[in-house]
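I'd like us to work through together how a protein chain folds, taking it slowly. To get us started, please write out a protein record for me. Label the sequence line and the structure token line clearly, so we can match residues to local backbone shapes. Once you have written the record down, we can walk along the chain together.
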Amino acid sequence: MSLTLDDADHRLLAVLQNNGKASLQELAEAAGLSQSPCWRRIKRMEDAGLIRGYVARLDPKGLGLHALAYVFVTLIDHREETIAGFGRLVAREERIVECASITGSADFILKVAAKDPEDLETFLMKGVLATGMVRESQTHFILRQTKTRSPWPLL
């Protein structure tokens, strides 16, 4: 569902993208609204699926995840059951933190988190490649992340 957003909606979204724990009072002040209309706007955007949820952003290193990598995956074929099976693999594997279908020589790009390089290798060999769905993969370790998450542009 597509929503028409005005300046007050953009101000609300800007605050929420940077502070998902902002109080209704803070949000209302930022949008120039009273609390009831502010709450209704937020509820409308949640119901429409524009606001998908609220999460805490954690530090991967603090969780013991010292190996992050982008893995380009080419499937063995493009049959419906292969693509669906790969989708199920991605959904159940918590080490795969992002997945996108892409253009180019690979079919998908995965962002994978692991304890260390050896843990990543084990996961790829036993968790991804052993499925028989992957023809080829190419792994690129992330050396340093300079921008890990930023607000979506509110154009």
